[in-house]
């Protein structure tokens, strides 16, 4: 985020408020609710992964998909450099600022495609605030949302890892999977 003399720009704050407002509005409009629960990893069929890169690392993305124990996986990759965008490939959707509005909200095509994949578990592998992915995280109906604790993400995750941004994406995924695989039964958080 843009900092001016240690403080945040007013525009960044407006963007964050807009994303929160828009995601809350979608829930109200669809009259949807999300059932939160922890699942046995063996009961999980579909996983959605949120990830961001300046320039995508295909090998790392492939390793992340492999780490998910042959589950049905969709990866949503926000590219933070405007000029770099690659063609989607099996299980991975890439999008950049051209697919979002000025405030970072993904367009209807991205939103619709994202919502059409009913994931059991959402895993956010971002280490800092990413407004387009935060919007997707907030509108996801996944019953268990997992990610790393970070500023402006209070109470968005059902399973939160304290990592202070020091873990790589695959290390963070390993920790999340460790906890998901050790949680037994279907307990409500």
Report on this model:
It is a single chain. The model is unreliable at 1-6 and 185-189 (pLDDT under 50). Helix 1 (10-30) runs parallel beside helix 4 and helix 2 (58-67) runs parallel beside helix 5 (169-182). The strands form two sheets. This protein has a six-stranded parallel sheet with strand order 5-4-3-6-7-8, sandwiched between helices. A two-stranded antiparallel sheet has the order 1-2. It is an alpha/beta fold and 189 residues long. The chain contains five helices and eight strands. It has helices spanning 10-30, 58-67, 108-115, 131-139, 169-182, and strands at residues 3-4, 7-8, 46-53, 72-79, 92-95, 121-124, 144-148, 159-161.
- What is the structural class? alpha/beta
The Cα radius of gyration reads: 16 Å
Percent strand equals 15-25%
* Morphology: globular
Low-confidence stretches: 1-6, 185-189
Most strands sheet: 6 strands, parallel
H/E order of the elements?
A: EEHEHEEHEHEEH
Give the integer mean of the pLDDT values.
86
Helix content: 25-40%
- The counted number of beta strands is 8
| Strands in their spatial order, largest beta sheet | 5-4-3-6-7-8
Number of helices: 5
Question: End-to-end distance, in Å?
Answer: 31 Å
């Amino acid at each position: 985020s843009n900092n001016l003399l240690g403080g945040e720009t007013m525009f960044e704050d407006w963007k964050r408020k807009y994303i929160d407002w828009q995601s809350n509005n979608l829930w109200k409009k669809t009259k949807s609710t999300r059932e939160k629960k922890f699942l046995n990893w063996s009961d999980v069929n579909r996983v959605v992964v949120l990830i961001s890169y300046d320039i995508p690392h295909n090998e790392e993305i492939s390793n992340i998909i492999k780490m998910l124990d042959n589950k049905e996986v969709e990866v949503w990759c926000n590219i933070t450099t405007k000029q770099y965008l690659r063609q989607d490939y099996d299980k991975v959707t890439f999008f950049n600022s051209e697919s979002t509005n000025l405030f970072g909200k993904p367009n209807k095509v991205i939103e619709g495609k994202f919502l059409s994949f009913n994931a059991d578990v959402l895993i956010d592998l971002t280490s800092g605030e990413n407004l387009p992915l935060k919007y997707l995280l907030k509108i996801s109906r996944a019953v268990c949302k997992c990610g790393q604790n970070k500023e402006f993400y209070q109470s968005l995750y059902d399973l939160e890892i304290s990592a202070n941004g020091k873990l790589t994406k695959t290390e963070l995924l390993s920790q999340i999977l460790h906890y998901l695989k050790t949680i037994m039964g279907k307990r409500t958080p």
